[in-house]
Amino acid sequence: SSPVCHLEIDYASANNKRIIPILYQSYVESDVLDALLDSFATKANAYIRSLLDGRDLRTIAQDNLLVLSRLNWVIFSDDTALDTGMSAIAEAIATDVDYIHEHTRILVRAREWDRSGRKKDYLLRGKDLKSAEKWQAQSADKKPSILGLQSEYIFLSKSTFAARQRMLIAGISTGLVVVMIFALIALYQAGVAESEANTRATQQLIAENNAATATVAQGLALLNEATSVANASTATVAQGQAENAAATAEYRSTLVAQQAATSEANLVEAWQTQSRFLADQSLQQLRAGNVQTALLLALQSVEHFPLFYYGSSQVALLESLSSPVQEIAFLQHEGRVIGASWNHDESQVLTWSMDGTARIWDLETGEPTYVMNHDGIVWGAEWASSESKVLTWANNCEYFDLDFPGDCTTHEATIWDVGSQSNPLRLPHSDFVAGAAWSPNDEYVLTWSYDHTAHVWSGTTGELLQTLAHDGVINGAKWSSRGSNILTWSHDDRTARVWFVLDDRDPLIFSHENPEAPITYLSGAEWSPDENYVLTWGTDGSIQIWPINIFDTTLIGQHAYSVNGAVWSPDGRRIL
Fold first, then answer.
1. DSSP 20-48
2. Which of 70, 430, 492, 532 is the most buried (most CB within 10 A)?
3. What one-character DSSP code corresponds to residue 324?
4. Which of 72-76, 113-117, 423-427, 528-532 has the highest mean pLDDT?
5. Residue 79 to residues 83, 84, 85, 89, 279, Cα–Cα distance (Å)
6. Which residues lie closer than 8 Å to 46 by C-beta, 6 or more apart?
7. 441 shares a domain with 293
8. pLDDT digits over 504-540, tens only?
9. What is the distance of C-alpha 159 from the center of its chain?
10. Nearest Cα to Cα of residue 544 among 519, 474, 528, 530
């Protein structure tokens, strides 16, 4: 009969959350609805009404009861069933429903394969095979445990799929060699035709020169016509011969040009055939689950765009780009993975996890090359620009919530010398460490904490060099691009501050306050691209710009609700 409980169930159902209903006392739906409406009429406050946002509470409750009626309930109705009920609740919470569904699906497929006489047509392939391999990797400590038939089914599916892939790649390679041979032949024919055309053009020039000579001879014959009729007749015959030679040369030149055009057309036709072949091979690879190979073939099929272009090439390219990326390595921790990042050449991946470790993985082998153990959850990790060191920060706290972490027994950042067996450098705080970052030149490390301080440390010795203090929890911090300044901000004291690194000067303090919204908290801050301004935003819905050299502020935006984030455009002229 609690309005808040019904709103929580409605929210959980709308977001596809898992709900485990417990039956403590039997109920009648109409009695529940009447009690709920009575409670709402007498106890509802403005906060609950704002959550309803004009919706009908009775309708929400009816929908909730319908959702709950479709679930498996844990019976917990009397004192004598306390141990049984608690065991049932623990078992329900621990049950991985998705794992059980996948176990059933793969078992059904495996039995169908076994009953068919183990025909290859029943084996897994493509996305089904990837999903089964991932499920198998996660099944070590799960119940029900994986069966021998399931393991054998997945293993044979994987080996058969790999054999098909090798055969297909071999076929594609052979086809590409044949196409390239035809292309080389066409190029050779085009070169021969061009050489013949040059020869014919030279002959045409010689013929034209002969024609000019004959014309001169004709003129001389006309001048001396009165005295030498025989010479005039000879000149006329020479002119006719020259004209015939010129006509023959022109015909041969035209023939050579036609042959060159034919050779060029043959080359284009070979390219077109190759384009259609590559597009078809791309689609076949995509259907086989080889997304990267399919994408490379599709790109080669549009190599001669815009000379010509086929719809099949477009289809192959778009489908390859929109398909899920094929896994090349499965990097598994013993607990939930919080984050990951590439190194510069993308040959390694850095991951960090709730299992208390950060790990560096070699993508060729899929195995960790360096494991960094912590006393607590690793909340973040960052490569140094040289990749010879890694910075991590970890906390061993009562809860996992960043906003309310509870009591912490360990709270520190750590500098690790990658591959070295020497002890890492410990950078402790007195409360929850919220983040850490290398300076641009890796010379220093910046850490910030719920103990109201940020620290600047030597990246080589781990020595504490400077302490930056706020009047509340420090929620974030950033280096300037030159490493000479640090920007910090606090949700609690509502200020952003610009500090001078290893300098005793007082910081620049920007108080994010709004007279129209007295209950204001600072949500975040950001440097402008040229670092001449600081942008702040808060729960009052406002966005403010602070010039670094002028102690003034410009209110540039006002939202109706809390602002959760903001970012500059690259040119620094707009803000999103």
1. --EESS---HHHHHHHHHHHHHHH--HHH
2. 492
3. P
4. 423-427
5. 9, 10, 9, 15, 70
6. none
7. no
8. 899 999 888 766 666 678 889 999 999 889 988 888 7
9. 29
10. 528
Q: Which residue has the higher pLDDT, 569 or 466?
A: 466
Of residues 233 and 316, the one with the higher pLDDT is 316
Domain with 347, as residue range(s), is 337-511
DSSP class of residue 79? G
- Nearest-angstrom CA–CA distance, 414 and 482: 23
Listed residue (539, 540, 541) closest to 559, CA to CA: 541
**pLDDT digits 0-9 by tens, 256-310:** 677 767 777 788 888 888 888 888 888 888 888 777 788 888 888 888 877 876 8
Residue carrying the six token digits 């993985």: 361
71: exposed, middle or buried (C-beta count within 10 Å: 0-12, 13-18, 19+)?
exposed
User: Can you spell out the DSSP letters for 391-415?
Assistant: EEEEEEES---SSS---EEEEEEEE
The CA R_g of the chain, rounded to the nearest whole Å, is 39
- 317 and 345 both lie in a single domain: no
Encoding tokens for residue 321? 């780009």
Q: Which two tokens stand for residue 441?
A: 């030149």
- The CATH code of the domain that includes 449 is 2.130.10.10
Together in a domain, 341 and 294: no
Of the chain, the end-to-end C-alpha distance in Å amounts to: 44
Angle, to 10 degrees, between the axis of helix 57-69 and the axis of helix 29-43? Answer: 140
Residue that finishes a domain, picked among 94, 115, 139: 94
Going by their DSSP bridges, the two strands 74-75 and 22-23 should be labelled as: parallel
In order of 71, 102, 324, 376, 546, the CA distances from 128 in angstroms are: 28, 11, 13, 36, 54
* Beta bridge partners of residue 50, listed in sequence order: none
Q: Same domain, yes or no, for 300 and 366?
A: no
At 226-263, the pLDDT tens digits run 455 444 445 455 566 666 666 676 767 677 677 767 77
Let me know whether 409 and 485 are in one domain.
Answer: yes
Predicted TM-score of the model (pTM): 0.47
Contacts of 486 (CB under 8 A, 6+ apart): 446, 454, 456, 468, 477, 478, 479, 480, 498, 499, 501
Query: Residue 474: pLDDT above 90?
Result: yes
Instruction: Name the residue with tokens 């706290």.
Output: 397
